[in-house]
Amino acid sequence: MNKSPKFTLILVVFFVGYLTVFSQNEKQPLAKVLGLIEQEFKVSFSYVDSDINSISAIYNNENSLDAVLKSLEKQTPLVFNKLNNEFITITRLEKVISAFSLQKLEEVVISNYLTSGIYKNNTGNITIKPSQFGILPGLIEPDVLQTIQALPGVLSVDESVSNINIRGGTHDQNLLLYEGIKMYQSGHFFGLISAFNPYLTKNVSVYKNGTSAKYGDGVSGVIDMQLSNELRQDFKGGLGINLINADGFAVFPLSKKTELQVAARRSLTDFANTPTYDAYFQRVFQDSDLTNENDASTSKNENFYFYDTSVKFLYDISKKDKLRLNFLTIYNALNYEEQATKNTVNEASESELKQKSLASGLTYERYWNRKLTTTAQLYYSNYDLDGTNYDILNDQRLIQENKVLDGGLKLEASYHLNNGINLNTGFQFTEVGISNLEDVNNPLFRSFIKRVIRTYSGYAEANYLSKDKSTLIKLGVRDNYFRKFNTHRIEPRLHISQQFLEVFRAELSGELKSQTTSQIIDLQNDFLGIEKRRWVLANNSTIPIIKSKQVSFGLTYNQNKFLISAEGYSKEVDGITTRSQGFQNNYQFLNAIGSYHVKGVDFLINKQFNTIFNTWLSYSYSSNQYTFNTLNNGRTFPNTADVRHVVNFASTCTLKHLKLALGVNWHSGKPFTIPDNDNPIIDNSINYQAPNGNRLADYLRADFSTTYQFKLGENQATVGLSLWNILNKKNTTNTYYNITGDTLTKIDNKSLGFTPNLSFRVSF
């Protein structure tokens, strides 16, 4: 009996110990667990309450502090960072991953660069966020490729989103990326409308120089479009219509780990003729087989339409693993009936032109720890341009095809060395195949050319950001190996951004780049004279690898919503061909290799008055000169895109739900070549004066736009009105000459005249 109290005590101790151990294996609120850890290990945690709410974990105090923290990281979507032996910070994993993406050290240094939603970053690029887009003159929707033309140094000499000139380069010298996939088609309506739906696009990064080493191709500029990469957990959508097309988009949360993003757009042009369609039709199809007044045949019953569809599937496999699947298709189609009288008999045939693109990509991202992130992407891009043209009088049928197949693999690793230094490295494999077909039935002729180039690229880049964020240095190098030519191309990249005296910032950028793809024109009436350019691959002889080198230096003053910036640059591009420049003079049918050198300065002044008024003035000056050793006796002459002076002035006004914008665009005329005044025709050929020795008249256009937001039930609605070229100025975008019989004919291509557009959108 004396042993009973001792036995009872032993049982109590045993059960208390058992219950204590058992309770340690039960989940408890994380806030309670953190309190126990603080008492046990004499440390303090720093965190945001909302980050740990509703999170529970199992705590075992028999482990060391490091083991306990690792256990909690495995159990929760949190990252524990020991600042020292006493203080530990807690951050949600998705915030850490977002903070340590490729954009790790990117800081916005100028917001509202032109209007809301446009930012200038210390990494040297301009970022456009369509969801935050304010308003620009002539635009009532955030058309990506129209918007970037408002940036200093960016111009389209013919008002086309399929012919964007960044610092004097041709459009094919721009690297256009959609979710990391290279695109070979950029426009609907053969160049008047961007082919990319903006309502799913989260960010668009535009680089004019100092690009990251991860970007290959694009000796002129980079336009990188990215969709949202994070799960929303709630539904979002919208529907819209204007006088050209209707569109819709939706974001569907399928589960806590999956999401589907869908967007689609289709033209109304085959259902109804509107004033906007009529203006676009006259602009696009002028000087084409569809409207050729010199032809004995007539064209009628035209049918034109376009559509695009984009889909993105997001799957968060785990806290550290993400899988993304993308799909995009773009389509343009034109059909028309050609009629003619042959041997007193009326005959008809149907000509057509189709332009389509398909892109898809699979991306896997792995977050290993707070320092290391890796990404792998498989992608496929396809472009197809098909034209069938009938000549009834000559009983001739011409089929033309231009196809591009681009597939590859990208591997990338990003290592966060410390709070100020990031290291990025990667490998890329690309295989591009391009084919061109011409098939004529009378006389029988068939030509089919296909080339394939495989490129192996490796790159490394270091980014440094000082603690006070005043200094950023981005230094990288890229090595491209072109297996077919057994050629290496080493390309260093540099960007330095330095803030001083608080309100000033200086930027120095430099880069070497190259590309193997380009667009050429064989004949101006190819593909019905509408989409004349076709993609080709370098062959290292008649079509060399295009190479560029560029350096720029800029200064910026930014204080009290008043911005002044100026940037001078010098760029040289070597390996261009005459057929890639669109000559319409005596060089049109020659095959020569040369270069161009452009020097210029971009200037911008922007003032915001409170949150209501915003106004800016930009001015760009450039001198762009060709050098072809076998042409013009080796002397330089003006580039076809040599537009010396460009001025943009605009003002916007935001009054609660009403937005208004008015702007003026002016630039000097581009060069063209005129025939000799005394002997314009020799041996049935045009006798030209000095190449590009004359200039078109100055270009002038004024635009207006306005939008108004209002409640429609529980949803948000927006109506918009845009007036493009409100003065109806008859601008000439191109001039060239033809011989008709014994007569010399001058042909002028005109810009868009007065073009109104209306839009209505509902967001839910």
In the residues, how many domains can be counted? 2
Second rung of CATH, namely the architecture of the largest domain: Beta Barrel
User: How many strands appear in the DSSP assignment?
Assistant: 47
Number of helices: 7
The percent range for helix content is under 10%
Task: Please tell me about this protein's structure.
The protein has 764 residues and is mostly beta strands. The protein folds into two domains: 17-99, Phage tail protein beta-alpha-beta fold (3-Layer(bab) Sandwich), CATH 3.55.50.30; 119-763, Maltoporin, Chain A (Beta Barrel). Strand 13 and strand 14 (193-194) form a beta hairpin. 41% of the residues are buried.
List keywords for this structure.
Phage tail protein beta-alpha-beta fold, 22-stranded antiparallel beta barrel, mainly beta, 764 residues, Maltoporin, Chain A
Summarize the structure.
By secondary structure, this protein is mainly beta. Helices cover 9% and strands 55% of the residues.
Describe how the helices and strands are arranged.
Blueprint: H1 3-24, E1 28-29, H2 30-41, E2 44-46, H3 49-52, E3 56-57, H4 65-75, E4 78-82, E5 87-92, H5 93-99, E6 108-110, E7 118-121, E8 126-128, H6 144-147, E9 154-155, E10 165-166, E11 174-178, E12 181-182, E13 187-188, E14 193-194, E15 201-207, E16 221-227, E17 236-242, E18 245-253, E19 258-267, H7 275-285, E20 298-316, E21 321-342, E22 345-367, E23 372-391, E24 396-418, E25 421-441, E26 444-465, E27 471-482, E28 487-500, E29 504-515, E30 517-520, E31 534-537, E32 546-559, E33 562-577, E34 593-609, E35 613-627, E36 637-638, E37 645-655, E38 658-667, E39 671-672, E40 681-682, E41 685-686, E42 694-695, E43 699-712, E44 715-724, E45 732-740, E46 743-750, E47 755-763
Parallel strand pairs: 2-5, 11-16
Antiparallel strand pairs: 1-3, 4-5, 6-7, 7-8, 8-15, 9-10, 11-12, 13-14, 15-16, 17-18, 17-47, 18-19, 19-20, 20-21, 21-22, 22-23, 23-24, 24-25, 25-26, 26-27, 27-28, 28-29, 29-32, 30-31, 32-33, 33-34, 34-35, 35-36, 35-37, 37-38, 38-43, 39-42, 40-41, 43-44, 44-47, 45-46
